[in-house]
What we know:
The chain is α+β, with helices and mostly antiparallel strands. The chain is globular and about 90 Å long.
Amino acid sequence: MKQLPYPLFILFSFLLYVSAAAQSKKPFAGKEPSWVTINPYDYKDNRLDHEAEDGYFDIGYDQQVSIGQQSYYCRRAIKILTEAGIQNSSEVSVSFDPAYEQLIFHSIKIIRGTTVINQLNLSKIKTIQQEEELSRYLYNGSLSSVLFLEDVRKGDVIEYSYTLRGFNPVFKGKYAGIFDLNFRVPIGSLYYKLIVPGGRQVVVKNNNTGIQPAIKNSPGETIYEWKQSQVKALHQQDNIPSWYDPYAIVMVSEYKSWKEVNDWAMDLFPVVTSISPPLQKKIAEIKTQNNTAEQRVLAALRFVQDDIRYMGIEMGENSHKPAHPNKIFTQRFGDCKDKSYLLCTILRSLEVQADPVLINTYRKKTIADRLPSSKSFDHVTVRVQLNNKYYWFDPTISFQRGPVHLISYPDYQCGLVIHPDTDALTMIGKKEPGLVAINEVFDIPDMSGMAKLVVTTRYTGSFADDMRSGFNNNSNYEMKKTFREYYAAYYENITADSVYSSDDEATGTFLTKEFYTISDLWKEENGMKKATFNPYVIDGIIKRPKDIKRSMPFSLVWPANYKEEIEINLPEDWNADQSFDKTETASFAMTAKFSFDGRRTISLKYSYENRKDHVSATGTKEYMDGLEKRDNEFNYILSYSVDGKSIPSSPEKDSKKNNNLYIGLLVLLVIGGIIWWFLRK
């Protein structure tokens, strides 16, 4: 029998485990816990129905947490407004982690007028494993209990409640959480409750809200309650940065400082004292084959990045606790925390100081505005001290090349360095060293519309990383197709003849060369042939907001540092304008220099750089004005009369006059001169 490929074998074994877990982790039915407060809902309230989306309205939502009981209680009621609401909301689905959580349903019912229809039937609830992060090679073992409701009608109210019992043991019983106070949909009634056992204290902090909790103290516990009614929907504007959160939230945490979070994380990443013989052999190999500390750091980094594939099994405590480096080395796979832990272990064995760094890839430096929490992070990287300098590396990025000071590091902005001396977050000011330099040469042999295009592009920094990864993960055919589709947006009848690449591992520079044949360069319009030339690559990374009147920032491509040069070799002598234009805003800077050799070659040189990762709401007008100037002045048009005469060309200022008209005017002037001479005589 043919064996399964190794990755499929791993996945198959994992799914068998999850299947077995699903059989032993079915939900239960039971009464609400005694510590829960049951709030009345107004099922007839329709004041916010007009703001509802997807055909239903959230009448009420409750979330109550007992830290002592390690339990979450949730209750939700929705009203079906339209037939679309029946389609979108006729099921109840609750996800949980069977490694430490137990799901208990208290009620599932349909309220139809004065009739209450019980729908809680455990035999009809299906517990399934979905693994929504499979595309990211992450397996967390979570299950979903799903009930498809029967006979749901327009006007019905669907209400259900449940408790999730059990906290992830990786947090050692310490609580931190966030209560959301508004959403993209309206809610009639919103209620949060937190029960803190006696002798324990939490810190509460608001963001975008002034709401204060009602606090009840007793010898055995402290109860916090937050209530809101008629909560209107909050709609985000398009393309806001990931770190910008316009929603109102209440943060709660038992952690008093980032030092406490660091101390918790220190236990997850202890210094490894027992290294397996195979890993020791690899470390000795790196040491023997590389003479300097910098060379050894690069060798260790490349091994972990390229030879330890990215895959994470994050069930239970493994959501935050890495596997032992010996295991990671043997199995040759791991997620961010596993790969970072292995890299730190190798470098420490090579007498190089290296520490894990907890990162939030979405919130970035705005986590500094939030309460200290062990749940503040979603990624792990590494900080290395070498020759009295700090270097930052992300072991999950493959195919990074070049010297240590040119290894790119994403714009994470902020992190918690896991080290005994850490008592605060560290701001990471590492600048992206990369650049994209494009040279596009158009050779135009005649005026038939045929042309040859050769594109040579030099990538450095993260841009080289991305392109190197693209060529390593795709066939040459796929890369050629991708490149061709880019220019096909400008020239419909373009053929990609060939694509080549070369990689300089010493400098980290990646070079590509593309060859194209164009058959429709010239477009005929009003008796003239025209060809428009744009900063093709730069235009592809410029983003334009849909919402012009903004109250929220607009995200930009970051990093973005491009130089693009277009050389146009013409079939005959030409007349062309020369110019230099520049536009600068707080968010970006762009230049365009157009030069002409006086005969047949025109050169268009562009540069573009985003100065930050966003446009502020107040800076939107300045940004749009800058783009308008770019649109009006930074394209270049060549014009040619149908009768075969070239017309002087200029940036975005196409001459509208045919040479025949010039000749006609000249003839009229000559005739007029002759008549005037005869009249004088």
